[in-house]
């Protein structure tokens, strides 16, 4: 019963639309017309804006890893080493708010016993990693050296990344370049097509976040004093894209 009712309603709607078309010479009244091709009208272009910037922040991912026969012993060694690492960071003017724990774990260390044919626990490993944001970027090398010295053989420095503290001004510049690029492309297309370019009717922005140069470090056993670790931040590229639709005047 319900199905028959739905079929009847659909038939009435179809007949009503056909009647409207018949009354207007095959066209719907203006208030019922749908412009299904509006998204295809005009000239669509993409513009790209790129800005090279010098990083002013270095971010280190560092910490300690200790291994011992018991959890308590491994945790004690890791805690003592991490205290020294934190003190070294603070002594080199890294603010406490710029130090954040990223990873902490306590894992069993096992090996396969061929006689018993089973895994046996031979110890425990404690890992404690933080990220440290260094705002005095020229001090990065000396901070790495200080952390390595205080943490000793338990020190782990996994990576270093570079960024810009406030990229807003660079995005404004990249945005201007992207719009200029988009307009130049649209003007060329309009000229080639023999039409007059109108105003933008649609603008969409997409930001490509910079890929920060990274390096990976693994601390080796203690060695004789070495010169300060050289760190070069280089340059970053901030990229921004816009998609713009321009109307065609004739």
Output the keywords:
disordered N terminus; Translation Initiation Factor IF3; single chain; 7 strands; four-stranded antiparallel beta sheet; alpha+beta; 250 residues; Alpha-Beta Plaits; 3 domains
The amount of helix comes to: 25-40%
Radius of gyration: 32 Å
User: What structural class do you assign from the helix and strand content?
Assistant: alpha+beta
What sort of overall outline do the alpha carbons produce when their principal axes are compared? elongated
Sheet-strand content, in percent, reads 35-45%
Q: Looking across the biggest beta sheet, what order are the strands in? A: 3-4-2-5
What distance lies between the first and last C-alpha atoms, to the nearest angstrom? 56 Å
Number of separate strands: 7
Largest sheet: 4 strands, antiparallel
Order of helices and strands: HEEHEEHEHEE
How many domains would you count in the coordinates?
A: 3
Instruction: Assign the CATH architecture of the largest domain.
Output: 2-Layer Sandwich
CATH superfamily of the largest domain: Protein of unknown function (DUF541), domain 2
SS field, number of helical segments:
4
Report the top-level CATH class of the largest domain. Alpha Beta
Average predicted local confidence, pLDDT: 82
CATH topology of the largest domain: Alpha-Beta Plaits
Low-pLDDT runs: 1-38, 212-224
What does this molecule look like?
The chain is of the alpha+beta class and 250 residues long. It has 3 domains: 2-34, no CATH class; 37-56 and 164-215 and 226-250, Protein of unknown function (DUF541), domain 1 (Translation Initiation Factor IF3, 2-Layer Sandwich); 57-163, Alpha-Beta Plaits (2-Layer Sandwich), CATH 3.30.70. It is built from 4 helices and 7 strands; from the N terminus they run H-E-E-H-E-E-H-E-H-E-E. The protein has helices spanning 2-23, 71-91, 140-151, 168-193; strands spanning 43-53, 57-68, 99-113, 118-134, 155-163, 197-208, 236-248. Strands 3-4-2-5 form a 4-stranded antiparallel β-sheet, with helices on one face. A 3-stranded antiparallel β-sheet has the order 1-7-6. The protein is elongated. Residues 1-38 and 212-224 have low confidence and may be disordered.
């Amino acid at each position: 019963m319900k199905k028959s009712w739905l079929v009847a309603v659909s038939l009435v709607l179809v007949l009503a639309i056909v009647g409207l078309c018949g009354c207007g010479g095959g066209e719907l009244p203006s208030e019922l017309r749908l412009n299904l091709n509006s998204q295809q009208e005009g000239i669509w272009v993409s513009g790209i804006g790129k800005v090279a910037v010098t990083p002013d922040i270095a971010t280190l991912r560092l910490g300690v890893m200790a291994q011992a026969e018991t959890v308590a012993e491994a945790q004690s060694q890791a805690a003592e080493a991490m205290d020294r690492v934190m003190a070294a960071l603070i002594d080199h003017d890294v603010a406490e708010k710029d130090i954040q724990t990223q990873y902490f774990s306590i894992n069993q260390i096992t090996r396969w016993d061929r006689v018993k044919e089973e895994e046996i626990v031979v110890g425990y490993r404690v890992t404690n990693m933080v990220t440290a944001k260094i705002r005095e970027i020229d001090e990065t090398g000396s901070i790495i050296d200080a952390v390595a010295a205080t943490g000793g053989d338990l020190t782990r420095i996994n990576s270093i990344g570079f960024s810009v503290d406030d990229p807003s001004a660079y995005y404004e510049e990249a945005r201007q370049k992207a719009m200029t690029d988009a307009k130049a492309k649209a003007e060329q297309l309009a000229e080639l097509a023999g039409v007059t370019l109108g105003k933008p009717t649609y603008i969409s922005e997409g930001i490509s976040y910079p890929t920060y140069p990274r390096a990976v470090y693994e601390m080796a056993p203690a060695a004789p004093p070495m010169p300060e670790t050289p760190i070069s931040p280089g340059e970053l590229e901030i990229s921004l894209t816009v998609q713009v639709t321009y109307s065609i005047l004739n």
